[in-house]
Amino acid sequence: MLVNPRNKKNKVKEIGSGRGILSPLTSHLLPLIGVALVMAGALFLIIAFLAAWTSNNLVLLLGLFVIFIGLILHVKYAKSGEKY
């Protein structure tokens, strides 16, 4: 369908413009993603310890990587929410 850009009646919404269904959900959950990743990384390391996967460095580094990414995201959202 061709839309005349000068015609005000035929406005087409762009993808991502306005408030969608997930917008309120993501605005409340984005600050919690960092904490969730830290918890997931810690849980992964605990499971790796209990399952005796500690001889493989890749498993341990993966858990550490997830914790660091979560820490960085948590600090980023904490700093962006401050007023000063």
Topology:
Elements: H1 23-50, H2 57-80
Helix pairs in contact: 1-2
Low-pLDDT windows of residues: none
* Averaged pLDDT: 79
Helix-strand string: HH
Reported for the largest beta sheet, the result is: none
| Residue share in β-strands | under 5%
Residues in helix, %: 55-70%
Silhouette: elongated
- Topology, number of strands: 0
How many angstroms does the end-to-end distance come to? 48 Å
Please identify the structural class as seen in this structure. mainly alpha
Question: Could you characterize the architecture of this molecule?
Answer:
The protein is mainly α and 84 residues long. The protein is built from 2 helices and no strands. It has helices spanning 23-50, 57-80.
Any key phrases for this structure?
84 residues; mainly alpha
Entry summary:
The protein has 84 residues and is mostly helical. Helix content is 62%, strand content 0%.
